[in-house]
């Protein structure tokens, strides 16, 4: 039996894909597969990537019964993933996401964010009927600030802020090499690769989505006779693996990045000088997020995780002649 979702006022203004990824908690590729198989339609027609949902629109979803039953079973489970809540009010909260936690889809993964959100809702002092929703995404192995809406109205309002460019997101990453230009802007067209490719995203000269990042070198280091740079990156657009692909394009890939980085460098960082586990994922951390909401300005920051702190303690900081601004 098909499932019909009638879009209400609080859900309007989102793209169908964004809405459905959160509503169904699906990965991008699973959602694309359902659309390609014509299991999802908008007002009886194929979904257009450019359209935004309006109040009264009807999304019809033909999802296999086995899929729905599995999802309903998983939604009832809750698990404390030991993530620190950095801030919370009646509309949203901010988590310091751990590396390894899957933000979207993969509910059969024991480290799925959905488990922790169910736990937070169960243990909340003020009980609410609605589910908690992640407002944006972080890669599985990326740590740092993640914003969670506590109701559908807050989700719509926060989504609008992201869509209109009113959110300032800053990351920090450890990159291979020394940057000739200590500050700069990267503008590239990015597109997804075919499913099954080693790299999920590639640079496109003519096609793809326009993306933009600004970077600033904070410190420089030396380790195992190689140079490294600690870099702050601000995103002006949002695309899967954007920072990772941008840094790799500059020939300064992120340390520990198994998809776009340098294998021999990554191997050097897996163990410290005493043979203990050091860095087993990319050195990428969402350090802060700032945005206006209901007349107030919010800036939320997340400390580096322990593995990233230990990595910086392992490398030797170099005295630099450039001036930080």
Q: What would you say this structure looks like, in words?
A:
With 325 residues, the chain is an alpha+beta fold. The protein has 3 domains: 1-74, Structural Genomics Hypothetical 15.5 Kd Protein In mrcA-pckA Intergenic Region, Chain A (Roll), CATH 3.10.290; 77-164, Pseudouridine synthase (2-Layer Sandwich); 168-290 and 297-318, Pseudouridine synthase, CATH 3.30.2350.10. 23% of the residues lie in helices and 30% in strands. The chain has 8 helices and 15 strands. The strands form 2 sheets. Strands 4, 5, 6, 7, 8, 9, 10, 11, 12, 13, 14 and 15 form a 12-stranded mixed β-sheet that branches. The protein is globular. The mean pLDDT is 87.
List the helices and strands and how they pair.
Elements: E1 3-6, H1 16-24, H2 28-36, E2 40-42, E3 58-61, H3 65-75, E4 84-88, E5 92-97, H4 113-123, E6 133-134, E7 143-149, H5 152-163, E8 168-176, E9 183-192, E10 201-204, E11 209-223, E12 226-235, H6 242-249, H7 263-268, E13 284-293, E14 296-301, H8 306-314, E15 316-318
Which percent band covers the strand fraction? 25-35%
- The CATH homologous superfamily name of the largest domain equals Pseudouridine synthase
For the sheet with most strands, the description reads: 12 strands, mixed
Number of helices: 8
How many structural domains? 3
Distance between the termini: 59 Å
- Bulk shape: globular
CATH class of the largest domain: Alpha Beta
């Amino acid at each position: 039996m098909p499932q019909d979702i009638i879009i209400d006022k609080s859900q309007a203004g989102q793209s169908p894909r964004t809405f459905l990824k959160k509503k169904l908690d699906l990965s991008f590729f699973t959602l694309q597969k359902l659309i390609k198989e014509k299991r999802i339609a908008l007002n009886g027609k194929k979904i257009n990537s450019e359209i935004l949902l309006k109040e009264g629109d009807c999304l019809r979803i033909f999802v296999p019964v086995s899929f729905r039953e599995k999802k309903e079973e998983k939604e009832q489970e809750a698990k404390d993933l030991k993530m620190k809540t950095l801030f919370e009010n009646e509309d949203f909260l901010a988590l310091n996401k751990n590396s390894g936690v899957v933000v979207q889809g993969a509910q059969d993964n024991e480290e799925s964010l959905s488990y922790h959100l169910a736990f937070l809702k169960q243990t909340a002092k003020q009980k609410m009927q609605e589910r908690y929703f992640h407002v944006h995404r972080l890669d599985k192995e990326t740590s740092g600030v993640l914003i969670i809406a506590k109701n559908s109205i807050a989700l719509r309002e926060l989504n609008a802020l992201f869509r209109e460019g009113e959110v300032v997101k800053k990351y920090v990453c450890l990159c291979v090499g020394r940057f000739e230009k200590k500050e700069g802007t990267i503008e590239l067209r990015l597109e997804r690769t075919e499913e099954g490719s080693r790299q999920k995203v590639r640079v496109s000269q003519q096609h793809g989505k326009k993306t933009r990042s600004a970077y600033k070198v904070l410190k420089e280091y030396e380790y195992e006779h190689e140079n490294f740079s600690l870099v702050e990156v601000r995103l002006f657009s949002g695309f899967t693996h954007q920072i990772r692909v941008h840094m790799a394009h500059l020939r300064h890939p992120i340390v520990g990045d198994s998809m776009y980085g340098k294998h021999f460098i990554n191997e050097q960082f897996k163990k410290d000088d005493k043979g203990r586990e050091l860095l087993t994922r990319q050195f990428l951390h969402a350090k802060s997020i700032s945005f206006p909401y209901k007349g107030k300005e919010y800036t939320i920051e997340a400390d580096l995780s322990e593995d990233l702190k230990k990595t910086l303690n392992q490398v030797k900081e170099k005295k630099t002649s450039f001036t930080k601004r």
